[in-house]
Amino acid sequence: MTSDHYITCTLDDNAVVQALVGPQNQNLIRLAQRLGVTLNLQGNIVAIAGDKQQVAKAQTALMTLYKRAASAQSIDSGEVDAAARLSTEPKDITDLTLRTRKKHVAPRTPRQSAYLRTLADHELVFALGPAGTGKTYLAVAKAVAMKLAGHVDRIVLSRPAVEAGERLGFLPGDMREKVDPYLRPLYDALFDMMPGDQVARNLESGDIEVAPLAFMRGRTLSNAFVILDEAQNTTPVQMKMFLTRLGERSRMVVTGDLSQIDLPVGARSGLEDALDILKSVKGVGRISFTSADVVRHDLVARIVEAYDAAGPGANRKSR
Asked: For the whole model, what pTM was predicted?
């Protein structure tokens, strides 16, 4: 590494500094590795050395983490990685942070920042990309934040239950027990944003609804934040039906991964169809994530990259 630039950052609150750097300075060590710089802590002063451009990124990332620690938010390896990725952002991401009952949710990649801005500016947004990129999680966080702020009255979360086809009636249990396995990821996101008792009360009152796509037919969803997950598994007819449910003062987000289609071979995905038909329609936003935006585990990103390199045949599930 070429240490042709050197600066120091003075961090005022020693208690916040300790929360920032972590045990044995592990967060500083990780940040230095991510950005290819040297970080040395002396008291409440951090010295940064390295390439001039990387030093500037490290300073930005360090101050982002310091602000987070100062607001009593946790700093873990994921937050450090996010700060490193976002160190080239031209704007402070504070205004993009979503506040829910259980946590503050902030973007972790530049494309996630663009996604949150797109969600703020458009009534209908299509979010595409592989698992682990936050496309559904951030949409649920936005929905919860908007409901808490009084901008919408209810949240509607939906998924197509493709694997069950038209055979839901033959599965054991009542209707909720039949469809819950297909909707579990949406429940998981809700419970990550709100205490369990509040989720239960909102589900009971109808202020939050989690339902399979078939339940959307014939409805108009007004003053609501509506999310359709796994939309690559809709047919064109189902997609048109869903999109035309949008009512007054509502927002709609459609998420999916066109490399993971479970429809019969040869069937056209409703998501792909809608993207073609609506590409020039005013008010429709679109964000495409890549493996670079995977924020689960480093190995997940490498797995996605390996499948992408293997080509379409490796991506479509065998029948």
From this structure: 0.77
